[in-house]
What we know:
The chain is mainly beta. The protein has two domains: 6-16 and 182-227, Irregular (Ribosomal protein L2, domain 3), CATH 4.10.950; 22-163, SH3 type barrels, CATH 2.30.30. It contains two helices and twelve strands. The protein has helices at 6-12, 171-179, and strands at 36-45, 54-58, 64-68, 78-82, 92-94, 103-105, 125-130, 135-138, 144-147, 152-155, 213-214, 226-227. The strands form three sheets. Strands 5-10-6-7-8-9 form a six-stranded antiparallel sheet, with no helix packed on it. The chain is elongated, with a radius of gyration of 23 Å.
Amino acid sequence: MGKRIKSQNRGKGTPTYRAPSHKYKADLKHINFEGLVKAKVIDIEHDPARNAPIAKVKLPDGSERYIIATEGMGTGHIIECGEKVSLRPGNITYLKNIPEGSPVCNIESNPGDGGKFVRASGTFALVVSHEETRTLVQMPSGVLKWFNPNCRAMIGVVAGGGRTDKPFVKAGKKYHKYKSKAAKWPVVRGVAMNAVDHPFGGGKHQHTGKPKTVSRNAPPGRKVGSIAARRTGAKR
């Protein structure tokens, strides 16, 4: 009898695959405002939940909260949140108030949800055009997407750009990276395993030994490879 494969363990939700959410600092959302609100950055910190740095800000009422940090933001930086703000990185306003060609990040999907798009380190989107009832934004992927003009966004580029340029150099560094995430590492190919560990394992040389396409209704443990593939191979 074969062993339970990796995808079955992941679906079960064993500790190896469970997100260490008890380490996460905060749910990062936009600062709510009526009129003009000014917040002061008091610290730049690391959050285990993400690769981009986060900023700890102090609001006028004395409360503190976390927001996504943008490039150029530092301790003592004043963030403006409101209808009419300057085009300084880190300021938060409605998409309809941001000029065309401006870089933005942490864009709301629906007005008031706190920000859903463009939150990864070094990413930004560009405001392309405005219409009366919608705003066109070019996403980091190049896709053009329409947004409600009352969705809020942060001006600037998310901090942490160039993070992937520095090589890991040794496996130990990568081990510690994945140790803090809900991921199994290292990733071993199915054909490199023994026959009891994976449907593609075993044999005198590494090969799948069977068709890679599998039914959509295949049971767990056999549902690996090209699942319910309409076509396989190079496009001709």
